[in-house]
């Protein structure tokens, strides 16, 4: 009987069951520690990603407020500032166009060679005024450009890739427009429109940051 008991005890007197339980607990602790380390790493990456997105957001915001090119962007978005006759019904596509700014010639929708919504192309190279600083590039005909989460007919037209210099990045930008058109005397050019600047992750389509800007083009 004594010999049987010894089979279940090590030299220090621990039973085999106690050793097994200790090993299981130790393994669980290591797994928990590894999970915590992984979660902490993901949290750090997400924080860094959001900080980078905040830089993109503020860069776009400052760029929109740069007096030297406000009119260029306004001409690129004439349809947003046209006062629509009261009672006129707009199509879904027209509503979408009035609800977004485009920030680059690549966002112009065309019927043949003519702009659909009266956009005036930005002169990117001007010896007198200097070159137009590009910040966003659009890919309206590339169906797989956007991550699956963001794919829709409207997003394809109005979400573009943020540019760092002339190179693309892994951030996407959308500018939504809000105007109080219920007020008949409202003039969007002098009273401003509310712009919502949204920055998305190009890899997974998640919204990283956003801000609202009241944008006045004729002050």
From TrEMBL:
GO process terms (BP): establishment of competence for transformation
Pfam families on file: N_methyl
Subcellular location: Cell surface
Entry's transmembrane regions: 16-37
Name this polypeptide is given: Prepilin-type N-terminal cleavage/methylation domain-containing protein
Keywords noted in UniProt: Competence, Membrane, Transmembrane, Transmembrane helix
NCBIfam families attached to this UniProt entry: IV_pilin_GFxxxE (TIGR02532)
Sections of the chain in a coiled coil: none
Claim: Transmembrane helix is one of the keywords in the record: yes
PROSITE patterns in UniProt: PROKAR_LIPOPROTEIN
CC annotations in GO: cell surface
